[in-house]
Amino acid sequence: MAQYEEFTIDAGADFAMELHLTNIDGSAKNLTNYVVTAKLKKNYNSDSDETYNFTTLVADPGTSGVVTLSLANTVTDNLKSGRYVYDVELSYQDSASNTVIERILEGRMQVTPSVTK
After folding, report:
1. What is the DSSP string of 43-86?
2. Which of 15, 39, 44, 113 has the most CB atoms at less than 10 Å from its CB?
3. pLDDT digits (tens, 9 = 90+) for 73-99
4. What's the mean pLDDT in 38-57?
């Protein structure tokens, strides 16, 4: 089950957050060969043209368990103020070449309006 977190971001500003993923025993999760996907929408049923993709980066080395999610100011500038929903998923190919997907984080993001444009 994914962890739930709420964040506030500023429209028109760069946004970035770093996730430190760990195993149950507290060791860093090995993210080698994993793909990280994260999306933001106004609501769960929003059309695909209302979906914003986070830029994701797995730190080198992948064994550190660190992922950075970011939205450039050009993206956040297009967000209307209010509440949004987001989630973050990890995916990888298992030994049978099946894609395994794990949702690791989800929640709401409050977007605050910008006066300066």
Report:
1. STT--GGGEEEPEEEEPSSGGG-EEEEEE-HHHHTTPPSEEEEE
2. 15
3. 999 999 999 999 999 999 999 889 999
4. 90
* Burial track 13-44 (b if 16+ CB lie within 10 A, e otherwise): eebebebebeeeeeebbebeebebebbbbbee
**CA atoms of 58 and 29, how far apart (whole Å):** 11
Domain locations in the chain? 3-112
Q: Which amino acid is at 32?
A: T
Location of structure tokens 């990888």: 92
CATH number of the 3-112 domain: 2.60.40.10
- In the chain the first and final C-alpha atoms are separated, in Å, by 39
For residue 116, is pLDDT > 90? Answer: no
